[in-house]
Amino acid sequence: MTPQLSPLLPRTMVDPALLNAPPANVLVVDDELSIRRTLALCLQGEGYNVFSAASVKEALDEAGRQYIDLAFVDLRLGGHSGLDLIPELLAANPGVRVILITAYGGIETAVQAIKRGAFDYLPKPFEPEQITMMARRALHTRMEELRMDELDRHGLKADLFSRSPAVQKALALARQAAASDATILIRGETGTGKGILARAIHAWSGRKTGPFAVVSCPSIPTELLESELFGHLQGSFTGAHREQVGRVAQAAGGTLFLDEIGDLPLPLQPKILRFIQDHEYERLGDSTTRKADVRVVAATHIDLKAGVREGRFREDLYYRLNVIEILLPPLRERRDDILPLAQKMLERFAVENNRPVVRFNAEAEDFMQAYRWPGNLRELSNAVEKAVIFSNGPEASWVHQAADLRPRTEEQRIGDAISLEQLEESHIRRVLSVHKSLETSASILGIDVSTLWRKRKKYGIRNGYGLHA
Prior knowledge:
Blueprint: H1 16-19, E1 25-29, H2 33-44, E2 49-53, H3 56-65, E3 70-74, E4 76-77, E5 80-81, H4 82-92, E6 97-102, H5 107-115, E7 120-123, H6 128-153, H7 165-178, E8 184-187, H8 194-204, E9 212-216, H9 222-230, H10 247-250, E10 255-259, H11 269-278, E11 280-281, E12 290-291, E13 295-300, H12 304-309, H13 315-321, E14 324-327, H14 338-352, E15 359-360, H15 362-370, H16 376-389, E16 395-396, H17 420-434, H18 438-445, H19 449-458
Parallel strand pairs: 1-2, 1-3, 3-6, 6-7, 8-13, 8-14, 9-10, 10-13, 15-16
Antiparallel strand pairs: 4-5, 11-12
């Protein structure tokens, strides 16, 4: 019998409460009726669908009738072992989380269970709180796995890698927001990955099987942008030699990504506002009002609040766009990500360009850590691709990019048009380049040594000598 799809799968990208989706399927396998009843009551109280089995055969029958997201399996099942059931459940329900429960055995049993594919191990006796907490943790990891699988299918997993708390916060907010049809505004400097995140939101949403249409507002001439968005009839303006449906109609059932919406011409803004509010529009040259079921995600590197104050952007459109705002930090504020991201890019470009390069040399790594990357991910990707193309051996160097990329070495002074953070980094690098002792440098800076260590890590200063200061 073909197993039914799990209720967890349609909501792979978000927590159950966000979609009001049916709960996960949990299987309890124990040959003691009292244990089965106790676990069922505990798990049903959490809102899960609970199925019970007293034997290996009954467990596999249940796994054949519906997809099981989580299974609690007793070690001793009559004449059979719960350890032997683990791989069979995994074969019937790939991705199922199995927790082995038992009053027997110790660490060796736990190790055997994990080796056979169990998620965790819980000894008897246990409290109800232990069961509910373990169930939540197991299902959370399952949903995270499914989210990553979905990104992998769209080629986005590597691009969204980050250790940065700020990026992780942005991704968590994006995953939650993806469940709704609310308009999302993504802010960030040019090249920070706003378009990548927009595609991820689409992949995480219930519209993922629908189209993803992109309109780059600054790249299309003002006089053609309305036609590009809403379409036109043949002969509606000079050069309209045939009918065009427009990106809005093409995105029906999916997502429309308005890139750099801060550059949207003021006369077109009321029409965008109307479409976002009512999903209604007219093609150029046509009086027929049309509707389209489209979710709008917008992005900008411009301060739209300033645009509102200066009269360049409608206030009502700003608030309609800014239902959910997600901020992506620049690459210079997530230095721990630079080398891992560069390595992932290197591996991809090496395959695409059939080059033998597998790593960066020390000079290239130091350079990447010291450089401020004003073009962010886009600039890093461009630089890595060049390094791969011009490398003849297993190591990539930065020689061929020297004319394009230079660490910021100019002396900066109080009053320059730079941030306090930039000024602090420049000063710390300068002090470290002169004074070889961390203790002396910390004393001059007026901070303790541990604080100096943290700031070195923050700014990517990987040795005590200033690193290209």
